[in-house]
Amino acid sequence: MRRGSSLIRGYSLSRGRSVAGRVTQWLMVSGIRAFGRALLFGIFLAACASAPGGTGVVAPTAGAPTLVDTVIQSGLSVPWDIAFAPDGRMFMTERMGSIVMFESTKPNAKRIGVLKVPDVHSMGEAGLMGIVVDPGFATNGFLYVCASRTDGGEWRNQILRYKAGADSFTFDSYVIRTGPMAAPIHDGCRLSFGPDGKLWATMGENGNGRLAQDPSSLNGKILRMNPDGTVPADNPILPGAATRTYAYSMGHRNPQGLAFQPDTGAAFEIEHGATTNDEINVLAPGKNYGWPEQEGTGGKAKGFTDPVWASGDVTYATSGAAFVTGAQWGAWSGSLFIATLKEKDLRRFAVTGTTVVPKEVLFDQKYGRLRSVVQGPDGALYVTTSNGSGDQIIRIAPQ
Questions:
Q1: CA distances from 131 to 69, 189, 299 (A)
Q2: Dihedral sign for Cα atoms in the order 311, 316, 320, 324
């Protein structure tokens, strides 16, 4: 049941009527009682399907896969993102500053390594956020994190590279040390490797909208870099910029989702709106997506690039996103899944080219605020919660 629903109202039936009136009254009462029993039974079934913890089953619309959701880790502290090693290990960031290594994705798998990233300044939305493994992880062991850290007397959003051992982590290098500034809000910091082999990062405007339109700032931008921290030679030069930088696109508010479409390699970016217009944008080099001058569609006349989808006059607090592929997903293979924080659900979008159509709302209110969604090597989706305490990682797999 959606919040704020009002489905049951009180009734007052008077006494002292005629026989015919009392028969009519009895029929009304019987009907109301029957309706009430049916309603309560439905609520009971919904509650059973939505009970927190353990394993649940969701049977969506006809022709769609039946989804089984299983809590695989619990008792966590704001798990922001997850990534997977080819050998089955799972890595997780907790916003307060820890990188955690689990031996597998099995329920209650053992923690085999933990690193407290030094100098992380976690406040509000800032802290240790995105994590991704290198495409060559099997040979180089590299993984990357995006962290809000105090460095040189400044609060910066940095991208750090670590080398993972069997049960430990060793700092390797800075990929980005200076440039993006941190703040208690709008840090972005989602990491992903594109099909081009480049490391991509979302970077929020840290609550200062003008930075999104400042071509000399890395805040309010989508960043694209070589894994060693150099600027790709084919990065665009933003309009008004003096030189080529990490910035790939501009005009972003608080982008927390980044997913690459499997068939086309197109970069889909998911962005929080202010009070309206959460957005899905398809990124193109050097383009300006409008914030703070423009939200939602209608910006083309001003020289901005419109989103391919916007939420209109509401916001869901759209966060992490992932495309799913694989025969086990059936008709849903190729869909885009987006986690929401405010609405506390997982949303499926059908995507054809750059046409995006919202479809099912899944696990509504069941696990609370959802932050990240990642497709694992087994084809299942792995979702993190962001409730502040007692957080979880949930595996969602089609039967």
A1: 23, 9, 33
A2: negative
C-alpha angle with apex 202: 198 to 293, nearest 5 degrees? 130
- Strands lying side by side in the sheet with 336-340: 318-323, 336-340, 346-352, 355-362
Q: What is the DSSP letter of 212?
A: G
Structure tokens at 163: 């080398």
Tokens of 397: 């797999």
Q: From CA 181, how far away is CA 297, in angstroms rounded? A: 28
Report the distance separating Cα 322 and Cα 82, nearest Å. 12
Helix (H, G, I), strand (E, B) or coil at 41: helix
**What backbone phi and psi angles, to 5 degrees, belong to 129?**
-125, -105
- Return d(Cα 66, Cα 294) in angstroms, integer: 40
Q: Which of 312, 303, 338, 314 is nearest to 324 (CA)?
A: 338
Give the Cα separation of 13 and 26 in Å (integer).
10
10-residue mean pLDDT profile of the chain (399 residues): values are: 32 33 37 42 39 59 88 98 98 98 98 98 98 98 98 98 98 98 98 98 98 98 98 98 98 98 97 98 98 97 98 98 97 97 98 97 98 98 98 97
Domain annotation for the chain: domains and CATH numbers: 75-325 (2.120.10.30)
The per-residue DSSP string of 79-113 comes to: EEEEEE-TTS-EEEEETTTEEEEES-SSTTPPEEE
* DSSP 8-state code for residue 242: S
Beta bridge partner(s), residue 161: 144, 173
Integer Cα distance of 92 and 98 in angstroms: 8
Average pLDDT, the chain: 89
**Close Cβ partners of 54 (under 8 Å, ≥ 6 residues apart):** 70, 71
Q: Rounded to an integer, what distance in angstroms lies between the CA atom of residue 219 and that of residue 190?
A: 13
**Pair of tokens at residue 82:** 């997850």
> Which neighbouring-strand residues pair with 56?
69
Q: The sheet that has 199-203: what strands, in order across it?
A: 188-193, 199-203, 221-225, 247-250
Contact 276, 295 (CB under 8 A): yes
